[in-house]
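ESCALATION

Customer reports they have been waiting on this structure for their group meeting. Please prioritize. Original submission:
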Amino acid sequence: MKCSVTFRHMKSTAALKEYAEEKIDKISKLIERGGEAQVTLSTSKHIKTAHIELITDGSLRLRGVDSNEDMLAAIDNAVERIVRQVKRYRQKIKNHREPQQGRELSHQVLTIDADEPKVPEIVRTETIVAREMNVEEAVMRLDLLNTEFLVFTNAITHQVNVVYRLPDGQYGLIEARAA
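Update from on-call: job pushed to the front of the queue and completed.
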């Protein structure tokens, strides 16, 4: 994750910059997707302020601000606020799977043996709840859940769609329509 550290009304020190970058690495392990972090460290009289803003590839923006007499404590508190935000969003997405808000779609897994030509056999059947949401929200959920694809019902078209992650970090969208 890219990290830029800016100092306002104080002298820049390598130790503070390294400390802030280490803390941003802690957050980037939770997000597991690229993005950038902007850290602004400032001082006003005897109060030190740390302002940290993260912008992920999925256009999720997280912000943590804290003021303290000790700059290291201010950085720690701002990072903890962002960590709590990430955990809260993940928990909200994980617990927010209500069947009445989406369609249940069953799918089947087929296995084909390349050596013998035979009829494919269904080895597993699952049901997926396709919650209704817009495409931007689906990309955010895909990013926070750290999965390769997400099946959802498009809030605008009311059709089943799939958003998936491409190898280059971009996202793809499949819009399913009845024939």
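Sent to customer with the following note: The first helix runs from residue 14 to 31.
Escalation resolved.
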